[in-house]
Design brief:
Layout lengths: L2 H24 L2 H16 L9 H26 L18 H10 L1 H7 L4 H12 L4 H8 L3 H16 L6 H20 L2 H7 E9 L11 E3 L1 H15 L2 E6 L2 E6 L7 E8 L2 E8 L2 H6 L2 E2 L4
Parallel strand pairs: 1-6
Antiparallel strand pairs: 1-2, 3-4, 3-7, 4-5, 5-6
Helix pairs in contact: 1-2, 1-3, 2-3, 3-6, 3-7, 6-7, 6-8, 7-8, 9-10, 9-11, 10-11
């Protein structure tokens, strides 16, 4: 076995870890694969004598590649201010590759959505430290900051990811249970189960971007709202509870890409109102965060 083949074998042993790092940073299996492949090409061009710890070197390089990709992605979005940013996901209903489905479920749709709202440096610092326990001394040169500044960066990202609930811990748990029951009934098409968690005079409102043609922007009454849930059922499998402007709601995120948000109002033990939000500008203005598991 020649030196190149030996290096390739050592790289392949690291590939699963590099993919995991890249996917959490980029939220896309195809982009993650591109980042890993670029890492291999850089390794192949590097003098092996300069590499003391291959695993750490590869993680640093793939992180730098991902940071560059995130910055490029952010720049493209800023160029499109006022326009609808192209969706990088496949159309709803089209199946993703099996590996991506597994990764999205493993990482969590809400977390992927929230990570997408962080700055590139925040996302890289958060993922490396919170998910892979990389020390800040190693993160600092990747994000171009001191270890102390890198720690602050990750801390700021953590606060954004966790958000600030607008209700007490006990109320938050109750509201989450209610929303999860609503989602479970919606996924199974259980109209009776949906009615059970709705207030009798519940109101569902929506912006036009969240609705298919012919659907009303406002529907009221538990039975009427529950019956239209069948229309939402196609997307319910892509939904996950999250904090939406401080309250327990839902994000609908095929392939980890935000498509819709449900801002839910709970009164007592029932859902009194919920709003379907699909307009891109409104979605970008929402404060979204994950719920503690």
């Amino acid at each position: 076995m020649n030196e190149h083949d030996s290096l390739a074998d050592r790289f392949e042993a690291q590939r699963p870890h590099l993919r995991a790092v890249a996917f959490r940073m980029l939220g896309s299996t195809s982009e993650a694969e591109d980042a890993v492949q670029e890492t291999w090409m850089r390794l192949d061009r590097t003098d092996r004598a300069d590499i003391v710890n291959l695993g750490g070197w590869l993680r640093t390089v793939v992180s730098n590649v991902c940071l560059d990709m995130l910055r490029s992605r952010r720049a493209r979005r800023e160029e499109l201010v006022g326009e609808q940013v192209p969706d990088r996901s496949s159309p709803v209903g089209q199946e993703t590759p099996e590996r991506e489905v597994i990764l999205v479920d493993e990482v969590g749709r809400a977390l992927l959505v929230v990570l997408d709202a962080l700055t590139p440096a925040e996302r890289v610092a958060f993922v490396l430290h919170e998910t892979f326990a990389v020390p800040f001394a190693e993160i600092a040169p990747i994000v171009g900051r001191s270890p102390v500044a890198a720690k602050k960066l990750a801390s700021r990202a953590r606060r954004k990811v966790r958000g600030t609930p607008s209700v007490s811990g006990a109320e938050l748990a109750e509201h989450r249970q209610l929303v999860e029951a609503f989602l479970a009934a919606a996924r199974s098409g259980d109209v009776t189960g949906v009615v059970a968690v709705l207030a009798p005079d519940v109101v569902r409102v929506a912006d036009r971007a969240a609705l298919s043609a012919g659907r009303a922007t406002e529907v009221s009454g538990a039975q009427a709202v529950a019956e239209e849930i069948a229309g939402f059922g196609r997307n319910a499998r892509f939904a996950e509870p999250a904090l939406v402007n401080g309250a327990v709601g839902l994000v609908v995120a095929p392939h980890g890409r935000l498509l819709l948000a449900l801002a839910i109002t709970v009164e007592g033990t029932k859902i009194a109102r919920y709003e379907l939000i699909g307009d891109p500008a409104r979605l970008r203005s929402l404060e979204l965060a994950v719920l503690d598991t």
